[in-house]
């Protein structure tokens, strides 16, 4: 068996049934072998998007997402998406291959240096006879480090004989951390002495499966529940659910956060958006539970850090509270439940739809009402998220991700494809600003070619939105941020998708029929006024 055949076989032994990528000299032989042996190859139009696809696939499946590109410029094209994967702590393996051993070869680049620049790990196959061992090691590092790893399999060895190889070994996840008893008792003491505690869950709590334990903890403490953005809708249906904690909070949640004197945080980084620059935790006791102790105190001071699994820690807290016979004071949370029951998102703002534009908030509320109850949601990044994230909901936070850890627009295109491949049994809703959508338009064709069930929602204000309001705040004419695109709906139709342009709220009523009209992706071009800046109303 030759190296390229052994790569394919080893990936399949590791249950890697899908690889994203773009074919070139260094990977074309093993990608061909992989498909011949039964693997699915999703070809991207741009190498960066292939890494974004693998990243989103990993986030929504919990498996390792694998991308494959050739050497040199193909690898450097992945850099932005690779940084995104690293900062999202996604389990991604990027396979590339060094150029022929000739220093003047024109596509030569230092692969290890590119990986290091992104913050990714690096592994190399040095000999054909250690191929499987080295692939095993790379996949194990992905799992144990929760970090993207770049694997270099030089092109020069692709047709070499591998000889007898070790069997591919399954990557083993790190053991779940149990809480230190002394820290646990101190944390429970802080919680029981608080007058207005809040229980806050992040994506780490979701991944841990801690929902029932956290709901029980909140009830034992007389506390409301809240989530970070990536824990979105985890407590939907609970009467004390505040929703998102941070700069996206609605008025009732903001009031409760301001009144709280203790926050028990499970599986969240407490980044600048959740903490609003630290201000939303100022003057509060903070218990921070996270499997990664490196997250403690990075964005806001922590009173009691606990390096442990979220679910195990919440369960242990519940046991201690039961042992203490604590009876919660429910007066504060009862008042919050009443206010939450009366809160209506539509009543929280004045609709500012124009003659041929819609208010993004009203638009997203209406779209949310029309979507199937069970769907995936992936978003790009940009000013539009302030009007999208609070109003678009999912049945399970594991169905949601946003390609925004590095702050680059455009990565949502790869994310949309990866999410749709990861969870094909339910539709994927992919939300973009116009600039982000156009940046990686080429891989819209990948969604079409793969007949993926994606609704692309382009929130189109004909501007680079964040720059529009920032220029205005600098006293500069914001029209410098405006741009002109082709008509997106006819363009999408010409590429093979179904599409519609929406300028009035009632035109959303046609979306269900658009979705049902055939297979493959749809696009709606939702027209917005660039001068409507919802930050002005907050």
UniProtKB/TrEMBL annotation:
Keywords: Thiamine pyrophosphate
GO BP: any one term: L-valine biosynthetic process
One cellular component term from this protein's GO annotations in UniProt: acetolactate synthase complex
Gene Ontology terms, MF aspect: acetolactate synthase activity; flavin adenine dinucleotide binding; magnesium ion binding; thiamine pyrophosphate binding
Cofactor(s) listed in the protein's UniProt record: thiamine diphosphate
Domain Thiamine pyrophosphate enzyme central stretches: 185-316
Residue ranges of every copy of the Thiamine pyrophosphate enzyme N-terminal TPP-binding domain listed in the record: 1-110
Residue ranges occupied by any Thiamine pyrophosphate enzyme TPP-binding domain in the UniProt entry: 380-526
PROSITE patterns, alphabetized: TPP_ENZYMES
Domain of life from the UniProt record: Bacteria
Family of the protein in this entry: Belongs to the TPP enzyme family.
PANTHER family associated with the record: ACETOLACTATE SYNTHASE CATALYTIC SUBUNIT, MITOCHONDRIAL, THIAMINE PYROPHOSPHATE ENZYMES
Annotated protein name in UniProt: Thiamine pyrophosphate-dependent acetolactate synthase large subunit-like protein
């Amino acid at each position: 068996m030759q190296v390229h055949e052994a790569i394919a076989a080893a990936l399949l032994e590791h249950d890697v049934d899908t690889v994203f990528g773009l074919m070139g000299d260094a990977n074309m032989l093993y990608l061909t072998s992989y498909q011949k042996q039964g693997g699915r190859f999703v070809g991207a139009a741009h190498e960066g998007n292939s890494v974004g696809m693998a990243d989103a696939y990993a986030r929504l499946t919990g498996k390792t997402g694998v991308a494959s590109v050739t050497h040199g410029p193909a690898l450097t094209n992945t850099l932005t998406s690779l940084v995104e994967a690293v900062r999202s702590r996604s389990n991604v393996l990027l396979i590339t291959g060094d150029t022929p051993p000739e220093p003047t070869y024109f596509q030569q680049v230092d692969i290890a240096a590119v990986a290091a620049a992104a913050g990714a790990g690096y592994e190399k196959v040095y000999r054909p006879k250690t191929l499987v061992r080295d692939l095993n090691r790379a996949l194990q590092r992905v799992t144990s480090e929760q970090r993207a790893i770049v694997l270099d399999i030089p092109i020069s060895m692709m047709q070499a004989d591998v000889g007898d190889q070790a069997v591919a070994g399954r990557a083993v996840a790190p053991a779940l951390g149990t809480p230190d008893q002394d820290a646990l008792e101190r944390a429970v003491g802080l919680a029981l002495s608080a007058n207005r505690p809040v229980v806050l869950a992040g994506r780490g709590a979701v991944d841990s499966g801690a929902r029932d334990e956290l709901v029980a903890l909140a009830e034992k403490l007389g506390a409301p529940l809240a989530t970070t953005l990536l824990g979105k809708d985890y407590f939907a249906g609970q009467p004390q659910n505040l929703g998102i904690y941070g700069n996206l909070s609605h008025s009732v949640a903001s009031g409760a956060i301001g009144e709280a004197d203790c926050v028990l945080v499970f599986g969240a980084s407490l980044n600048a958006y959740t903490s609003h620059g630290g201000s939303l935790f100022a003057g509060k006791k903070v218990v921070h539970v996270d499997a990664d102790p490196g997250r403690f105190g990075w964005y806001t001071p922590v009173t009691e850090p606990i390096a442990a699994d979220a679910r195990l820690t919440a369960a242990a807290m519940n046991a201690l509270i039961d042992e203490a016979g604590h009876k919660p004071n429910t007066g504060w949370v009862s008042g919050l439940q009443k206010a939450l029951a009366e809160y209506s998102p539509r009543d929280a703002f004045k609709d500012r739809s124009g003659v041929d534009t819609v208010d993004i908030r009203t638009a997203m509320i209406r779209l949310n009402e029309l979507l199937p109850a069970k769907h995936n949601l992936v978003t790009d990044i940009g000013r539009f998220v302030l009007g999208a994230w609070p109003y678009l909901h999912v049945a399970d936070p594991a169905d949601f991700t946003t390609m925004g850890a590095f702050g680059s627009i455009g990565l949502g295109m790869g994310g949309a494809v990866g999410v749709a491949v990861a969870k094909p049994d339910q539709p994927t809703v992919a939300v973009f600003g116009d600039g982000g959508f156009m940046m990686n338009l080429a891989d819209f064709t990948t969604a079409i070619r793969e007949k993926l069930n994606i609704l692309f929602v382009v929130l189109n204000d004909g501007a680079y939105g964040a720059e529009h309001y920032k220029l205005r705040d600098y006293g500069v004419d914001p029209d410098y941020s405006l741009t002109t695109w082709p008509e997106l709906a006819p363009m999408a139709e010409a590429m093979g998708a179904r599409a519609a342009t929406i300028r009035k709220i009632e035109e959303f009523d046609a979306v269900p029929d658009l979705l049902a009209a055939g297979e493959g992706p749809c696009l709606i071009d939702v027209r917005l006024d660039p001068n409507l800046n919802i930050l002005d109303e907050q």
